[in-house]
Each structure stands twice: as C-alpha cells, then as structure tokens.
TrEMBL record:
Entry keywords, A to Z: Cell membrane, Cytochrome c-type biogenesis, Heme, Iron, Membrane, Metal-binding, Signal-anchor, Transmembrane, Transmembrane helix
GO biological process, alphabetically ordered: cytochrome complex assembly; protein-heme linkage
Source organism of the structure: Bosea thiooxidans
Compositionally biased region (Low complexity): 146-156
Gene Ontology molecular function terms on file: heme binding; metal ion binding
Membrane topology: Single-pass type II membrane protein
Protein's recorded name: Cytochrome c-type biogenesis protein CcmE
A Pfam family assignment: CcmE
Presence of keyword Transport: no
GO annotations of cellular component type: plasma membrane
Function: Heme chaperone required for the biogenesis of c-type cytochromes. Transiently binds heme delivered by CcmC and transfers the heme to apo-cytochromes in a process facilitated by CcmF and CcmH.
Length: 156
C-alpha cells in the first residue's frame, strides 16, 4: 500500500467515524427536539395530533377562561388563525391578553393544544424571536416591538 493510499484510507475511516457519531447524537436527541409553530402554520401544515411542539403568538383578547383549581384556557392567535390552549398551573405574572406568549406542550388536534409550560414576554420591548418572526411574516409587527392592533376599528 502506498503512502497516498494509506492517507486516503485514514481520511475515509475518520469521515465514517464522524458520520456515525453524528448519527448517534441525532438519534439520541430525537425526543428532545421541539419544533416551533404559529397558529397558521399548524393549520397549513396539518400537524398530527400527539406532536410535541412549541406554539407562539398573541393571547387573543377575551379568550382567557379560568377553570377549577389552576386550570386556564386561552386562545393563541397570529390574527389569521387561532389555537385553543389549556394549561394546568400558575401563569407567569406578565401573562395577559394581547401579549406575546410561547407555550410548549402537545397538539391534541382539532385546534386544541395542551401546554406543559407557558412563557410570557418580560417587558414592553421584548418578544420571543420565534413569535416576532411569525408576526412579521403575517404583517402584524410594529417597529417599536409591539403587536399591531387587531383591526383598524381598534385605533382611537
């Protein structure tokens, strides 16, 4: 075997080992990878029930309903579509209607989402990047970081 052939075999073996290691890492992480969707994307892509994901958008005005115990139900919208979210637990202090929110949990189908955690924005200028990108794509993002009004009638 010549020197050039040995070098080529060594490079090929190192590439195979790296490819195998990357495959093992991705296989091990398959249960921890969570995808982000907005309400419109869920409708358009036809997300299968039982899919673990993150759902982000704005809390729809007038949609918050409190149930027995710490059960809360609300709608997350991007002004085009909305998904009904149920959550058992304490909501963040800054959670309120019209504000940006990211929920993580399981899509139950038929526009219903069961959340394990709810994250709200922490001040008037911050919104999670995924939510801001989705709102920009929909044309509902203001340069000052706030969401656009739901309709022209909402302006004073």
């Amino acid at each position: 075997m010549t020197r050039k052939q040995r070098r080529l075999v060594l490079i090929a073996a190192a590439g195979a080992v790296l490819f195998f290691a990357a495959g093992l890492v991705l296989f091990a992480m398959r249960d921890t990878i969570v995808f982000f969707y907005g309400p419109t994307e869920i409708t358009e892509k036809g997300v299968a029930p039982g899919t673990r994901m993150r759902l982000g958008g704005l809390v729809e005005a007038g949609s918050v309903q409190r149930g027995p115990g710490q059960r809360v139900s609300f709608a997350v919208t991007d002004s085009t579509s909305s998904v009904r979210v149920t959550y058992d637990g304490l909501l963040p202090d800054l959670f309120r209607e019209g504000q940006g929110v990211v929920t993580e949990g399981v899509f139950e189908g038929a526009g219903r989402f069961k959340a394990d955690s709810v994250l709200a924005k922490h001040d008037e200028t911050y919104m999670p990047r995924e939510v801001a990108d989705a709102l920009k794509k929909q044309g509902h993002w203001q340069p000052d970081g706030s969401a656009a009004p739901a309709s022209p009638a909402a302006k004073p």
